[in-house]
Amino acid sequence: MKTRLNPVSAFSMSALCSPDDAVAYLKAGKLVALPTETVYGLAADAADGGAVAAIYETKGRPRFNPLILHVLDVHQAQQYGQIEGLAQALMDAFWPGPLTLVVPLRDNAPVASLVTAGLETIALRSPAHPTARQILAAFGHPFVAPSANRSGRISPTEATHVLAEFRDQVPVVDGGPCPLGVESTIVGLLEDKVSLLRPGSVTPEDIKGVIGKPLLPPTEKIQAPGMMTSHYAPSNPLRLNAAAPEAEERLLGFGKMTSPPALNLSEGADLKEAAANLFTYLRRLDESPGPIAVAPIPDKGLGIAINDRLRRAAAPKPS
Ligand code: TXA
Ligand code: MG
Fold this sequence. Notes:
The protein is built from nine helices and twelve strands. It has helices spanning 19-27, 49-59, 74-77, 85-94, 130-139, 159-165, 204-211, 271-286, 302-314, and strands spanning 32-34, 41-45, 68-70, 99-104, 121-125, 143-144, 185-190, 193-198, 238-239, 250-253, 263-264, 292-294.
């Protein structure tokens, strides 16, 4: 269905849009909801940190959980993940389709650090839905897409569900009801160990049929959704809510600072910009030794998820 929507001027309108409009929204760094064979996803350009931050803002997610990178095919997936033996075999068997594989992240993968929440693994999925594939092909890059619902609500399987969820906020491509209605199966692959992270319509038996051995429970390095205690943590000590740096500290700023910060998450005190910079700047400061102080971040909107991550990063490390 072609609509009258002008994709550049009508971002704030709630409306159905065409797959071509969806591509224009993605290219412009905007969110768009679209159908997959499992559930409707809230999609953003995976390389655009600000667009990825907007997913969290729009969903009202209190935490930065890593997101699934949706790719056209194995060839595209190879730019992002290290794909070897068993991962390749599973992709050959089940892609495109409702199987997500968590594999080691490739160095310099062209993806915003907010996508993996700073982890060194990445979740990859190639959706089978023709509309999702049409958009991926025309966009030419992967998008990330969590389910298109507000945090804590059930996943939408029809365009009307998404419209009701994000009234006036996000344009929606209507692809009819999702044929599967359950999120993809998620499997972790690390050093030839294959673990089930989230059950879905590709069953453990289906997977065993390809890899020739049973699935293991989640490991410490790759954990299941909702069980993720592992997260990005800098090796240097981190002090939070610091108005100014002490002795050796380097300051990670936010907004206008009285002492000049080493890096500033957002000079204009924009939480979306701060979220997009968070993991990249923490890593950059962690490249050289010495304590890090972080300026106070307002505990509202995206600031809640930023503070959640900062608190975990500052927590004493298990010895
Ligand atoms: O069917 C689906 O997979 C849908 C559609 C829209 O494609 N998407 C979806 O995304 O369910 P989301 O964000 O709701 O769920 C992704 C799950 C998260 O719970 C996250 O914990 C896990 O994938 N995940 C992503 N990257 C991970 C990683 N590197 N390690 C472990 N878990 C990861
Ligand atoms: Mg979800």
